[in-house]
Amino acid sequence: MGDTSLRISVIGLGKLGSPMIAVFASKGYHVIGLDVNKEFVDALERGEAPVSEPQLQELITQYKANIEVTMDYEKGISETDMTMIIVPTPSDPNTGFFSNDYVLSAIKAIGEVIKSCNKYHQVVVTSTVMPGSMDGIIRDTLESSSGRKVGCQDNEIGLAYNPEFIALGQVIRDMLNPDFILIGESDKHIGDALEALYLKTAAKRPLPFHRMNFVNVEITEISINTYVTTKITYANMLSELCENLPGADADIVSAAVGSDSRVGNKYLKGALAYGGPCFPRDNRAFAALAKSVFANALLAEATDQLNNYQIERLLRICGQIAEFSFGDVPQIKLKVGILGLSYKPDTPVVECSVACALANKLICNFDVFAYDSLAMPSASQMCDKRVQMRRILVAGGAGFIGSHLACRLLEDGHDVICDD
Predict the structure, then answer these.
(1) Are both 59 and 194 inside the same structural domain?
(2) Is residue 393 within 8 Å of 385, Cβ to Cβ?
(3) Which helix (H) or strand (E) holds 18?
(4) First CA to last CA distance, the chain
(5) How many CB atoms lie within 10 A of CB 283?
(6) Residue-wise pLDDT tens for the chain (420 aa)?
(7) What does residue 293 show for φ and ψ, rounded to 5 degrees?
(8) Where would I find the H helices in 82-213?
(9) What is the CATH number of the domain that holds 323?
């Protein structure tokens, strides 16, 4: 059920890497976290979570004895048996492809350390990469920098691709309770090692494992998110249809549609457009990949277009509400409040945030006030300077009581935003 004598190093201590070392440490593994970001390393050395994520601080505090951190590749690699790479792979805005630069930098550094070590080492890439990367430039870079061949013999290297399917705001919960484990493996030995690791860390039983070659895992990873974005967009399309049909209720319709086992209820609810660091870019990468091999990905392209349309739809709704409530009163600039600026709840991440994009559009015709309990600092960098960030939230107390409380707070010099 998993050998906790396995020593693991994790390269990249950001929003996914820090939860990963905390989860492994909580299951009894000794983990060395490695990052070039000194602030992340210093924070973990103090026993502080370097990023905001539910349960992260509690796990770091409780299992600090199992966690080391360093900026030294020599220490991180030579003192461990398995290295997991979870560094950014930013998207090229022109091509839609993911950049492997940070992954290759880590791979090269790992290989140079392995070259001087007389032992078998396992290298696991968790960062999202484009199909063809693992069995191409990543394998080639590891072999050339280490002077060894990828394989399972004593003086060779194990190589695996093991993407995580998690959501920010629930990373630790998802790591402890995965739906399945996806492993692309160079050989059976490293696949077996990863299977043993997850049988120790994951709670789900039976835990499905899908072990396959590299390219199949690479395609699977971006295909899942592309399918989910299509489902979200379908729900939003259905929502708009119901809005324009008297008596129709999108929530009632989507709940019934989702009751069909062929469809399912997950992600089938009309709401904002999707955003964040994964969904938009994975969808575009899928379309770009298809185009590069002369395949058709019109559905992925249409999903992206319809998702962008949702912001224009919301702007139109705001305009309709304003006109219905106040008529054509040009001398009055109406106020709009936005509650929540991150791309989803329980995270400070504003990357591809629909709320920020909406605020930047609304500011042309409205006074915009915004509040978020976690994302204010990062959102202030993303939003137009005219968007007013507020730091006191008045919730409930409809009408007279709520408005008078807000006025009193404003008179006392507080920043206020109302939620009712």
Answers:
(1) yes
(2) no
(3) helix 17-26
(4) 50
(5) 27
(6) 446 789 999 999 999 999 999 999 999 999 999 999 999 999 999 999 999 999 999 999 999 999 999 999 999 999 999 999 999 999 999 999 999 999 999 999 999 999 998 889 999 999 999 999 999 999 999 999 999 999 876 668 999 999 999 999 999 999 999 999 999 999 999 999 999 999 999 999 999 999 999 999 999 999 999 999 999 999 999 999 999 999 999 999 999 999 999 999 999 999 889 999 999 999 999 999 999 999 999 999 999 999 999 999 988 888 887 777 666 655 667 888 888 899 988 889 999 999 999 999 999 888 898 988 888 888 999 999 999 887 655 555 444 444 555 555 555 555 555 554
(7) -110, 20
(8) 101-115, 139-146, 171-176, 188-201
(9) 3.40.50.720
- Write phi, then psi, for 212 (nearest 5 degrees): -160, -175
CA distance 44 to 71: 12
Nearest to 351 by CA among 269, 257, 282: 282
Spatial distance between the Cα atoms of 127 and 124, rounded to a whole number of angstroms: 9
Residues 183 and 90 in one domain: yes
Confirm if 265 and 211 have CB atoms less than 8 A apart. no
Question: 164: domain range?
Answer: 7-212
Q: Any idea what DSSP says for residue 328? A: S
Rounded CA-CA distance 395/391 in Å is 13
Q: Give φ, ψ of 313 to 5 degrees.
A: -65, -45
How many domains are contained in the chain?
Answer: 2
Give the end of a domain, one of 163, 192, 212.
212
User: Alpha-carbon distance 32 to 417, whole Å?
Assistant: 43
Which tokens in the block code for residue 181? 């484990």
The residue written with tokens 């409530």 in the block is: 325
Give Dmax over CA atoms of the chain in angstroms.
79
Render pLDDT for 255-285 as a digit per residue (tens, 0 to 9): 999 999 999 999 999 988 999 999 999 999 9
Q: Looking up tokens 């299951």, which residue turns up?
A: 27
Strand partners, 85: 11, 125
Tell the residue number behind the tokens 């709840």, with chain if given: 345
**pLDDT tens column, 174-214:** 999 999 999 999 999 999 999 999 999 999 999 999 999 99
Q: Tell me how far CA of residue 161 lies from CA of 81, 184, 195, 406, in angstroms.
A: 16, 5, 13, 53
Strand order in the sheet with 335-339: 335-339, 367-371, 388-389
Q: What share of the chain is helix, strand, coil (3-state, %, to 5)?
A: 45, 15, 40
| Of the residues 158, 184, 212, the one at which a domain ends | 212
- Please count the residues of the chain: 420
